[in-house]
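> Could you send the Octanoyltransferase prediction when you get a chance?

Sure thing. Input:
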Amino acid sequence: MKPTWYFIDSGHASPAFNMALDEALLKWHSQGDIPPVIRFYGWEPAALSVGYFQKLKGKIDVDAVHKHGFELVRRPTGGRAVLHDKELTYSVIVSENYETMPPSVTDAYRVISQGLLEGFQELDIQAEFSIPEGKLQQTGSAVCFDEPSWYELIVEGRKAAGSAQTRQKGVILQHGSIPIEVDDVTLFDLFIYPNERVKERARKAFGGKAAAINEVAGREIDLPEVKDAFKRGFEKGLDIHLEPFTLTDEQFQEVYTLMEERYQSKEWTYSR
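Output:
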């Protein structure tokens, strides 16, 4: 009999709520209140999320973020900046001691990413794992989709999903972005470059590095179809059964409190 995990489709919500809910789910799982969780969500308004350790000064054009109508939020996970707009965002919350979860971060990425791989296959998209040759070269770019890391998903050599992970209280939180469409012109407005020529060169170089579902599928795929495919993908890839879960009023209140105290806090967002 397959293990039962909870499944939450929380729809589109504010960036601060999205990050607070992921953190709350990690806490509840660490306390044994809930089993492992797969969560799908979207962003309203669209947002630029930055990694826990990522510096804003000299890297992110905060004025441009707000001028485009986006919000800025800092994730509890590492990694680089991601523009969350026309995409499916997923999160996986599971104990480090879960029987099929390897102890190393890289190997845990591989296991969780198997669900993503199966999801792409459900859409007839031939994705594969990124396995960089030798040591992963860091370009210094602040943009997440500029280069794939170990076991991220690539299609035709281009990054098709970007993920980040943290481990707290004995629990793994991995969440990531699966773009349905990519607007690289707007994306590069949000970062600071020495001049327009350098920005344009970076944008053109990026054009061959990111793969959006609608582009590589060769047809228009709507969000419900993407969700169904990746839900089946996670069930198959992790060999689990997903059971729908709805938060209680008390749990929602805990998320709202965390949202206000941390993820809407300028001190949290701008501290680095």
